[in-house]
């Protein structure tokens, strides 16, 4: 930690300033409380009557006054310092405060004309809130200035860091609820300060909002001793600045304390950034000592300024303030009176004129134009998004003289492409690679030739590929990688998250929420498209030779495919060039979540670049060079495959069939984009039935070798002619038969191996079972031979380990160009 | 924080003791290193030759020496203090050290006779390690003394706390890797000390193992300033005790420092426990000040004692020591020599006799019998498991005079059952309820009549249901809940995890790993069955009236159903009594993961207790009282349902059909245990085809209303006669059409409503489409009426909100008993 003398900031607010801030805050509280209750009489121009109250009271009050206080003071700070700022609102159910802020500053009405800054717009604001088909009580995509919904808690700080990366002039305030602070992702996020570059990144200002309670419980951080909390926050690398309010506090004192804390934080941030950016070489290169970033601890009552006691029970400053503080107001005149007293305590007549327009002094602290929190282009990142300068694939493609002749590591070639993309974006800094300590392990390390891993903590002699200004973010937390990337994308940049396939499940929930965000954002007219969230899942289930069972799980695909079809895409490129073509495609897409599954181990090069591009564009296709079908006739059987390992086994099976059953007409189909299997009515990438039937036939046996859980293919194709299991589609895939073992043993254990596929063809092709008993026995014998070989040698048998493809074209002397 | 004068512990080891400890540690290191390399010559009785080396070197060295040091010193501590201890080994790929420890103390050989404590057993230990079909390099279920595999990182500390709860005499050491310390779940786990009761729980002793590197990267906690780290750990509520070793450290010094740190920690733990347990009333009731629990920070080089430099690159104390430190040893004589020098540096001849048996001084620190770490019954919890004293359901069942006459909140009745179960286990303390701040929200709060929420942090006047000795664990982290429960179950106790349905996805990955653990544990002969992991998913997708889209996700079922069928079970009880019957069942099961999905809102009581029990036992059944089929004839159509909301809509559809199409013969089928839909070959609960056909018919239209994503039903039933979508099975379910809205609007948006189901029947029953156009139009009109009603009133229309079931039996005057 640092021993610099702390900056002491003298913030002296004039009484008028304090009153202006208080008016703004009271207006936010008034507008928020009314959102919970009112369907009429928005300005309380007449006494409150039951018919002014919504029939069903749904909404949340607890966190709102604290969020309002931050909104007010962030306004002041932005105005006073001439700063671009963005706020990530962490606490759940805080939308009422943020909507109130956006309405008050005018942004809501500019984006949604029926939310105009007058009595009519105010009433619309109140009526729609938390009502059927209306506006959610979370800061969903329809809320101006929001980049996270916060319905699922824990991601605010990670999102804030993601927004701050490569935005050197931006201040990102992150209000962290003390409820969400108990979650794992949030707890890990505190260490993100070791990855924030004071030179190229903006600042993150966490505001830990200790209001003491969750739904029905105290919070941990509000109940530990103050010195323990202080040690914790300093241990995270922060210098905490404290603001404390109790139910009885004089608001003017609180405003002065908040203003001083925010000014103090900004002074520290500006000093740190200035030193890093303008200082000597040492500071510029980031080798100077890491400073503690300031943060604010706001201890303020849950449900502050609301009813203190109802029915003899304390509400304010308890968990009972979480939702509706006074209920039964339509039925009970006393309760109605209580509500009216509460609402009038904000003195709405001082805040709004007769037409419902905010009076001048209420808006004194509000910034202008795009500086308003609800108008920040960073919070509507599509406004800032630029096309990526994607490299020409020709320079990264691997040469393919003949189908399947050579082998390459797909992800290594992608690493080359990423290296060039990093170089091309060096000045723009709008592309980053994210991953949990696996860039090398996933064979993407060529990217380090262009940029190192970001690292602001101590460096030691011998460290490799670490630097203060790097754009590869590595931390052993999939949650942080995902949260950072989401924040980065939603503020208008591009990225790729490379992960071990199995551990993508760590972020299932976050991925699902991001899909929901994109799904909802598509329905918000003023939200501009953002770059897609791209996953590269590698080190996949079939090649966990020494990691074993715990590292074998292809189910992330299933999780994603359950989500909104407008948003989700899954690609399984079978080789290096196809991976490059898929990567090039997904990096150009907008508003989707793309999952790309590809191996890092040497893989046969099935397709040349042009073929790969065409194959990727079609999403699936017949590989006529790999089958034996005769032109113009339907084949006897279709061998279909998706994924690199299944493709290899399928081609090996095709070769075995050619050798052992030369009369059989075999078609080989490879699927890259699995949504093509769905009907067009179910997914925008779905193939029309006629095209599907043209590829898979309507009635010939289809033996499908698939990378993941086999039933997913049935689920996608069940509406097709041959889709049911009693029909001709037969799928092999991963069936949780995993362990520490060799690649070929894995496919044998899961019945996905070439010999089993041949047996499946024999079993399912009419008339073949009796004709081909000897071939079938031979296949069974090979599986037996494998099992004894591996027991004895611990390796795969030579005929498998050394297998190479030789297709009919080689046999007939044809060459591939 | 506390200001007690710190305990200063004077640990003086004699030279002989130090030498004994060092011999044990050297033996562990030798045995570990040999596991990576050797297939022969285990005692190095002859010069190392290439044929002694495994053909494929797979394994990990980096973390092993540090884990070995902990194993050695935990042995000493257990022996010196007469303590029961368990160790949770957090760092990944540490199994070699733990297997070495178990082999050395003899437990491995007792459990697996071919791992005997002689040269033959030693060779078996070496050969099987990290080889195909052999022993994983993670501490998988086959590793004695292990309760977590650690293949996926981040759960060690949570598991340790779970093991310590209600085990007052147990010391649980948790080695936390500095890699896993970056994960969210681990970061959140540090705060678990606010939930540990010094009276009824055991102690957790975290050992933060700072070896500095992950796979290819430095770790954050090893690179922050020491005072920052110290503040962080104190902020977590710990008193850290430091042990530091560098590549050049004299092992004797390190042993003395480790012994002093462990003794110091135990002194503190014993003082704290003694004061809490034997002190005055204040301390006994837990109202005394929370003390900081001690922890050890072990800073020691990655790959310590291994080769310092290979090929001019530093290995020891860098990330390069992560896997195999010297490779190419079979091919390169120099490398082979390097390996031999390394292995001989442990002086095996001093450690083992000619038969490979450990010499006496090596075993001096090893405890006896069940005190040995690999023999702890706590690590094989089934040895300690007792049947739960489950209450009679009769006292909690709701009276059902006629099917569907009344309504109850299912989870509230379950809360009563849990209350009684908590009371019945008050002395035994072997049952706990886990949840993220939602026990009240999920309507389970009656449990608080028996036991409060555990809380060791500060209490304030007005707090409710908080207490230092409670057995309800609430923290806003699904990760912690899951990790604690796993640790609790694997050490032989029982529990239930109640969560909002949508946020179960937060623990997808942990749940998947636990299924894998149970799957693998079934294959380990000496592992005794443990209590199943039970989820109650409530506050489900259909009733998120004010939480909206972010809280709507039924996909946890799909995730779980992808996993090993021997382990996974999913139940969808349609009403209160069925929920009780299901809960009673799952709490009796062993070695499975049970997912129970049930609502908390008032729900029709369809079944009396005896009916519910029978229905639950069958898993699905025809509700003849709800349909109109004529005895002995196949019905015209089958209405099937699974889940409480779909059941209600299905019964309403049945009533509409009875009213509008009285001639139609309708069968109603309800499914509780969805695995019944699978073939018996695919899941142990699968229904034989003939029974399936007897229920669903082979060819009549089946309109299936399902709680979750509809395609799951197709995936389960696709092998059935009518399983494909082109066949007669038609499924309605949740299709991501969510928002903040009313219950009935949710089902309309997702086409699961009663009117749509009737339309489906009309559309899919041969001949009906033309006969019933007017009825169909009427249904369409009702859906239109709903949409305008909700727009106008914000509520559900009266004919839906006030709907009650009246079955044919009422009409015919039959009564239900």
Automatic annotation (TrEMBL), chains A, B:
<dbReference type="InterPro" id="IPR019790">
    <property type="entry name" value="Xul5P/Fru6P_PKetolase_CS"/>
</dbReference>
<comment type="similarity">
    <text>Belongs to the XFP family.</text>
</comment>
<dbReference type="InterPro" id="IPR005593">
    <property type="entry name" value="Xul5P/Fru6P_PKetolase"/>
</dbReference>
<dbReference type="InterPro" id="IPR018970">
    <property type="entry name" value="Xul5P/Fru6P_PKetolase_N"/>
</dbReference>
<feature type="domain" description="Xylulose 5-phosphate/Fructose 6-phosphate phosphoketolase N-terminal">
    <location>
        <begin position="13"/>
        <end position="383"/>
    </location>
</feature>
<dbReference type="GO" id="GO:0000287">
    <property type="term" value="F:magnesium ion binding"/>
</dbReference>
<dbReference type="Pfam" id="PF09363">
    <property type="entry name" value="XFP_C"/>
</dbReference>
<dbReference type="InterPro" id="IPR009014">
    <property type="entry name" value="Transketo_C/PFOR_II"/>
</dbReference>
<dbReference type="GO" id="GO:0005975">
    <property type="term" value="P:carbohydrate metabolic process"/>
</dbReference>
<keyword id="KW-0786">Thiamine pyrophosphate</keyword>
<dbReference type="Pfam" id="PF03894">
    <property type="entry name" value="XFP"/>
</dbReference>
<dbReference type="Pfam" id="PF09364">
    <property type="entry name" value="XFP_N"/>
</dbReference>
<dbReference type="InterPro" id="IPR023962">
    <property type="entry name" value="Phosphoketolase"/>
</dbReference>
<feature type="domain" description="Xylulose 5-phosphate/Fructose 6-phosphate phosphoketolase C-terminal">
    <location>
        <begin position="600"/>
        <end position="805"/>
    </location>
</feature>
<protein>
    <recommendedName>
        <fullName>Probable phosphoketolase</fullName>
        <ecNumber>4.1.2.-</ecNumber>
    </recommendedName>
</protein>
<dbReference type="InterPro" id="IPR018969">
    <property type="entry name" value="Xul5P/Fru6P_PKetolase_C"/>
</dbReference>
<dbReference type="InterPro" id="IPR029061">
    <property type="entry name" value="THDP-binding"/>
</dbReference>
<keyword id="KW-0456">Lyase</keyword>
<dbReference type="GO" id="GO:0016832">
    <property type="term" value="F:aldehyde-lyase activity"/>
</dbReference>
<dbReference type="InterPro" id="IPR019789">
    <property type="entry name" value="Xul5P/Fru6P_PKetolase_ThDP_BS"/>
</dbReference>
